[in-house]
């Protein structure tokens, strides 16, 4: 055999040996390890899916009772095995991203309430307080808030959540304000200051996270227009400065216009035209019979 052919055959045999080494069957340990990895991935997906379901249930339950969604509650009820890595405010607000036509009371029931009248009064109260704080620059001292409540005849008492209850048709103002704080509509900050002979405490009121979401700038603008009985150039300019809203033409409606009915398909005269056609055809037949 020529030397050149012998060298080529030797090179081919070496390549086949390398391929056999590369394609060697996996040991039982390696196969088990790959199977464990696949099973681990499936288990991790199932755990994540369960955590998502628990979080959704917890968020909906909190929204129904107007309870702030806090990280402690998520950790205890939805994600017991998850550890916190970054510090946050530990409070969340559930926000609906559904289109406006799907957020009507007929589809989404209101939060847990004792009375429809009491709910309406409560909404009006916290909307008014939030509007006063926002239009005052985002914060309001406790004495100034009390003065505003006195003008509203709500310095000592406010309507209760169930005004139809003859035994307690009203509640103490401090109790209602405390409920607004608990539900996230308001935030009360107490600061200590050293003045003269001793320390003095000053209380400042701010809009809470839920208040900012439910009573946003557009809602406040519509509320102010309702209070002032309509819109005007001067009022719109003041609200643009105070609320940082876009320019709005006076007299423009606050409500969304209803969409016009869809036109019937081409060749279809529509139900009203069909009814008129049937009536005309009946009259012709009656005339022929006579």
Describe the structure.
By secondary structure, this protein is mostly helical. Among the domains are: 3-101; 116-215, MAGE homology domain, winged helix WH2 motif (Arc Repressor Mutant, subunit A). It is 52% helix and 11% strand. The protein starts with a helix and ends with a helix. The model is unreliable at 81-87, 255-265 and 270-275 (pLDDT under 50).
Topology:
Elements: H1 3-22, H2 28-64, E1 69-70, H3 71-78, E2 91-92, H4 116-135, E3 139-141, H5 142-151, E4 157-159, E5 170-172, H6 173-182, E6 186-195, E7 198-207, H7 209-214, H8 217-227, H9 233-243, H10 271-289
Helix pairs in contact: 2-3
Biased composition (Acidic residues): 255-265
Domain MAGE: 55-220
Region (Disordered): 1-46, 244-290
Sum up the overall morphology in one term: globular
The biggest sheet, with number of strands, parallel, antiparallel or mixed sense and barrel status, is: 3 strands, antiparallel
The spatial strand order of the largest sheet comes to 3-7-6
Number of strands: 7
Low-confidence stretches: 81-87, 255-265, 270-275
Helix and strand string, N-terminal first?
Answer: HHEHEHEHEEHEEHHHH
Average the pLDDT over all residues and give the rounded result: 74
Report the helical percentage. Answer: 40-55%
Name the CATH class of the domain at 116-215: Mainly Alpha
| SSE-based structural type | mainly alpha
């Amino acid at each position: 055999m020529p030397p050149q052919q012998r060298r080529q055959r030797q090179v081919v045999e070496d390549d086949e040996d390398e391929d056999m080494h590369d394609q060697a069957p996996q040991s039982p340990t390696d196969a088990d390890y790959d199977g464990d990895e696949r099973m681990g991935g499936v288990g991790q997906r199932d755990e994540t899916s369960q955590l998502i379901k628990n979080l959704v249930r917890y968020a909906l339950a909190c929204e129904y009772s107007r309870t702030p969604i806090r990280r402690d509650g998520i950790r205890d009820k939805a994600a017991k095995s998850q550890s916190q890595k970054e510090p946050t405010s530990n409070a969340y607000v559930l926000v609906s991203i559904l289109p406006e036509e799907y957020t009507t009371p007929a589809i989404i029931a209101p939060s847990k309430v004792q009375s429809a009248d009491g709910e309406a009064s409560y909404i009006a109260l916290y909307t008014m307080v939030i509007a006063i704080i926002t239009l005052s620059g985002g914060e309001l001292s406790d004495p100034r808030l009390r003065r505003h409540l006195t003008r509203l005849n709500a310095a000592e008492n406010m309507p209760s959540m169930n005004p139809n209850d003859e035994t307690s048709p009203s509640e103490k103002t401090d109790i209602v304000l405390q409920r607004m704080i608990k539900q996230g509509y308001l935030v009360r900050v107490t600061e200590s200051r050293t003045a003269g002979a001793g320390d003095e405490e000053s209380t400042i009121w701010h809009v809470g996270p839920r208040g900012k979401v439910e009573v946003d700038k557009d809602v406040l603008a519509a509320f102010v227009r309702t209070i002032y009985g309509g819109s005007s150039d001067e009022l719109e300019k003041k609200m643009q400065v105070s609320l940082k809203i876009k320019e709005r033409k006076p007299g423009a409606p606050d409500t969304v216009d209803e969409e016009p009915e869809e036109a019937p398909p081409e060749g279809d005269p529509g139900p009203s035209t069909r009814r008129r056609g049937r009536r005309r055809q009946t009259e012709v037949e009656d005339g022929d019979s006579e």
